[in-house]
Each structure stands twice: as C-alpha cells, then as structure tokens.
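I wish you would study the pair of lines that follows with an eye to the fold:

===
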Amino acid sequence: MRSNALKIAAAVVLSIVLLFLFGRSVDWKDVPAHIADINLWVFLLLVIPLSLFHFVTRAARWQILIAREKIDVRFRHLVRANVIGFTVNFVFPGRLGELVRPLYLARKESLKPGFAVGTVVVERLFDVTTMCLLLGLFMIARPLFAGSWPIGAEAGERLTALGILGLAAAAVILALILLLYFQKDRALRAAAFVCRPLPEKTRATVPRLLGEFIDGLKFFRTGRQLALYAVMSLIVWLGIVLFYWVFFAAYHVHVPYFLVIPYVFLTGVGASIPTPGMVGGFHYFSKLGMVLLLGIAPARAAGLTVVFHAVQIAVTCALGYAILAREGLSLLQLKRMGESETR
C-alpha cells in the first residue's frame, strides 16, 4: 500500500514538473484565441473519427499475433481491449493499461494470460522500431525538403539523438526477448531459483507465467507473417500521423504530411513517461515539437496541445466507459486486474 502511494506521488510530482516546463514560456492570455481559431467542420467530420481509427488498425495488427494461439478471435474484443487499455492509461498512472488490455482479452477469449501479455511486449517493440524507422527515413530524406523545414541545426541534432536512443532501446529489448526465446529452460530454472524464498503460490505462479510469456513469443512462423506484421505497424503509425496532420489542418496550420513524423515521434516519447493520463509528458514534448520542428509560436503550440490531449482523453474515455457499462465492469475492477498480475 505504501509502495503504491509512493509511486503515485512520484508520478504526480513528475507531471507537475513537466507541466511547469510546458507552460513557462507561454503567454497564456493569447491561448484561448488560438484554441477558438478552428475549422469546426473539419474537426467534427475528420478529426473525431480519425482519433478512433488507430483502435481499428491496432486491433487488426494484434490479431496477427493472437492467431498464434487462437485463429477465430472476435475482432470486436480486440478493439474493445485496446479502447479499455487506453482508457485505463488515461485515468491511472504507471501505464497500467498495458497489462489490463491483454488480460481483458485473455478473459474474453480464453487465452493464456502470459501469452496475451507477451503479445503486448512484441507490439511495443514494433511500435518503437517503426517510429524510429520512420524518423530515420525522415532524417535521411531531410536534404530533399530542407528549404521548407523551419528546424535549426541544434534541434535536428537532438532529434537524431532521440532516434538513436530509441533504436538502442528497441535493440536491447529485442536481445532480451531472443535470449528468453532461445534459453527458455535456463530462464525458467533461474526464475524458480529466484522465487525460492517467496511464498509457495508465488513460486508456482511466476515460472508458469514466464513460461506462457516465452511461448507467446513464438508468433511469426514464416517470414511472410513477420513482413505482414511490419506492414501493419507502418499502417498503424502512418494513420496516427494522418490524425495529427488533419488536426493541424483544422487549426489552419498547413504543413506537409512528412513534417508531422518527427512531431509524432516526440509526442510518443512524452506519452511513454508514466504520468497519470500522460499529463505533463505529452504536453511538454508536444509543445517542444511544434515550436522547434514546425515553427509554431509557443502560445499557439500550447493551445493546440491542450486540445489534442483533451480530445484524445474525451473520445477514448467516452467509448471506454460505454464499453464498461455495457459489460458491467468498472475501472477499479480493471485496475485490480492489472495490479494482481504485478504482485
């Protein structure tokens, strides 16, 4: 109980620090006017639907992994699990939704929990790799459109450094996963040895879940399946880039589609910080990206960031609460579901 309180306190303090960094250079009296300067029809007819589109593409990509265990998984459950997972992430700190999402699907489709959690690890690895790949391609092609890009040399160096850091993190995760995959027996023996001093229930549960997790890594039986998953990862992230590009257009910020790629990369960095509802991390990196990469004034960047974040929370949580109400579940039940697997 005390440990959870400390984690929450640390997340809140981190949010406050990042919000301070987000707002310190902003003339807030100008922000309301920037928020109101919107093409409402583009916002309602394109932005709102596109804010939900990534749940569909993520579900289609996830289905490729789940097929390793169950071919006839219901697509609506994949979509609902994604919506519920993101809803939990928006409400609770610590990215708990990343556990709730696979556990919810495991219960709905009678899957092994460890297997389902393993699919999410693979998803996150491909998310990082795909965004770093897109950023790398963007940086390689930069000379072709240098004249239309308002970024300075220093910002370009920072962006390149973040891309390298992301690729390094993806490489480390991939190496650990391959080590577990090829050394399953040793990994299970090591887990059993480490768990010896723990209660009997834990000694039995941890190796079982680890075994299921390692089994869950055997997703791609052929190179064709791997290629298909890689293509779907590109579709997921190019769709997210499209959402932000249309959002910018609704606010009369007209930038080439490819210029949104490094901005989305930075928002991904901010969203990965485990603060409650991505508050602070998303805001700081979003404004940073708009100002440094797109040449938007700080007050306008702050206003657009606030709207971006509010729309994602409002649309996702409205749909998530509707799904939970339909199924007779509560967010606290989902929170306990996720926490039960971390003990």
Remarks:
- The mean pLDDT is 83.
- The first helix runs from residue 2 to 23.
